[in-house]
Protein 1
Amino acid sequence: MIREMIDDSPPHSGARRTQRQAWSDSLIDSEISPPSGLPGGASHLECTLCGAEYTSERLRGLSDCCSRPLYARYDLAGLRGKVSRESLRSRSSDLWRYAELLPVRDPENAIRLGEGWTPNIDTPRLASRLGVRRVWVKDEGQNPTASFKARGLCLAVSRARELGVTEVALPSAGNAGSATAAYAAAAGLKAHLVMPVDTPPAIIQEARALGADIELIDGLINACAARVAEGARRFGWFDLSTLKEPYRVEGKKTMGYEVAEQLGWRLPDVIVYPTGGGTGLVGMWKAFDEMQALGWIGPHRPRMVSVQAAGCAPIVRAWEQGTDFAEPWQDAHTYASGLRVPGAVGDFLILRAIRESHGAAVAVSDAAMERWTGELGRLTGIFAAPEGAATAAAVPLLLERGVIRPDDEVLLFNTGSGLKYVR
Ligand SMILES: *Cc1c(COP(=O)(O)O)cnc(C)c1O
Ligand SMILES: [Zn+2]
């Protein structure tokens, strides 16, 4: 099945490759990014819990077998040798530079707003304040719609449209809503967003300006999810909830590819990631395995650290108790809306990555996030989202516990811009 699908490339893909070659040649004097002209596509989908395989050529939500996330799998053995690290050099400065490792089959279906290839900023003043040899901040606030949600929704919307979807829907208390609105607008799809009334107002206004149909609900995210499920049943909306369809994680995994490529094909000692649904953390973990299978990196892995808000820390609690799955958190509260996720369907994937990498999970208070937004801003020039500031706030705790050592190289994820949270 795998081989059939790889060989099933569109008849004109050869011509595209030639055009692409011409672009790379002209790059030398023009320095203009070439259009993405590379065919991609998964070989199949796989249940993350039991390993059952499904075709990737039909729309899917959670796995039929276990109601757990599906992962896209690629013919990595076939791609090894065909796609080299060197061949990436002349490619476009966005996440489509990894097209062969992405699920969109026809390059014409890639929706592009400038997502990915965000700067990985060396922050020596922050490093010395924290007492760590080196600290990078990967500034995801520079993505379209000012958060890393753009990566996931770019891929999910592109692939949904490729498979014939015309209306998408999402329950969201934050940045995923405006990212969905943006990619749906660019793709010409209708976006239905169901958001809690206390979603940051900048995000609601942004999503409205981007043409989404918005319903505000006086309740929590699970009430919003129920409304979306109803719309999916009654009107055929396609539900883009985190890890409930297979392709948002494919967009988020590109952070793992970028970290390696931007550091010259090595990885930091520690990656600190603010965790809600955990898509980025498990996505990067998947990317590391793929890159090793491609021969791009060796077996070294960073210690993966999950940071959550003290008012909503199901992963931290499960990590401390040593369980494989996380119980949902009651009465979740934090102003870091991206971290207000009481139950994650990919909980076991997050916990497994933390454990296998010898990482950790820690909680920080909202007050600490606020304080560190200021520290980070003054020491780096980056106005971080509270979720991003949470990663810096976690470093002193991690040093105390020996998860980070003073001579480590540490990478913090600033997952969004602080501007989205201004009231
Ligand atoms: C959604 C979000 C997060 C959490 O991301 P997950 O991949 O769901 O864990 C962190 N920070 C910001 C700014 C977000 O919007
Ligand atoms: Zn299964």
Protein 2
Amino acid sequence: MLRLSHTLIAILLRVIVAYGAKWGYTNGESQWLQHYPYCAGPMQSPVDFKTGRLIFDASLRPIVLENYDLTGQGTLTLKNNGHSVLIVLPSKMSITGLPQRYTAAQLHIHWGSKTSPRGSEHTVNGKQYAAELHIVHYNSEKYPNVSMAFDKSDGLAVLGVFIEIGASSPGYENFLSHLSQIKTKSNTKTIPAFDISSLMPKRLDEYFRYDGSLTAPPCYQSVMWTVFKKPVTISHSQYDTLTATLLASPANHVTPVPLVNNFRNPRPIENRVVLTSFKQGVTTYMSATCILQRKAIIRQLLVGDVEEVIESGLLPQSATKLLYQGYTKTEHTGFTSSVKTSYDRLAKLQEITQPTLAFGSLLQQKSLEIKQSTTTKSLPVSLAEAVLPKLNLKSYLACKADVVPATIKFLLSGRPLVGEEDFFLLDPYLDSYTMHPWLVQREWED
Ligand SMILES: *[C@@H]1O[C@H](CO)[C@@H](O)[C@H](O)[C@H]1NC(C)=O
């Protein structure tokens, strides 16, 4: 009996492990959530670019490609990973024109099927293109490699290119002609290096920009998205090659599974906005004061006077309501002052925020770090460093999203009782989040 149950447990464990490592497009995305909780997050990708949701941002500069032309420079690895066709990119390739330098890691494609040429992930007013190319880059000024960056809120920058059916593309032929040699999952093939920019539209100055996530598990909300407005074209027969050659299943699989419809449907935009680098069809304009106001609000929330924040009227109503509740609680129960050390405070925070936010493990880790740290950092700075990136305040501070009530609740409950001097300590930290061309340089404004 005992042996039987041991065997049973062993089998169950093996099933769970095998299952957890797998995800696909055929059984729907609801299954992703069971094993990849981030896929249910509030800043997921892709999204639908709706005209009424777009804000023109005059500070968005053209994307600048560096060392994209790899012609005659050795080989590239082409891979069928069971979810897409992927090309590993050399680290000499990078993009600038963004606040930081991002180094290329890989590219891959999402597509429909031979009979249904609708496979792009992002859509424009509901229009789905035939396919979509993603070129993945990581923030190489801050992280040593892509694996360190891909779960950080400022870790990745992905370029998205819509693909529609039309004129044939010599650029895409560079790898499509080798696709039949990586038919099954895990197959790889080296191909001659080519000019990666031949896969992209000519105009790199017209794009949509928003903060989002990986469009496949583990769905980390770590991507600054740049999706170019103008699509590129591939021919009908090139599209057929792309959609009807590869299998999602490995070579020895009993029933071959075609690799088709490997796209995720648009996720809710929630409280985010989509910025555009182009004016055409966009009625709302971004203002620089927004960024300064938001910085002031966060500073007040972390170390300042809550009443002032409430009276400013700059927060959404839902957030103000929460603020009132939290403020009353803090004043009357003396909760904040009774929690002396940062460790206790974070433990208390964890207790309060656990039901709404999945920051338990982060807090545990950070509270330990703060406890053991010998740095002279002030408490609000340590707190801010620990929680701000995970709260996606980056987007809020850059006026790319509204603040979520959960964030306000979290910040408020973490308010330490500290003096004026902390304002100055906190400033450089907040500045690193508001790194916006407007605050640095204004001469290109029109
Ligand atoms: C990425 O960098 C980290 C930290 O330097 C290192 O531990 C890890 O092995 C690196 N990963 C890869 C895939 O190079």
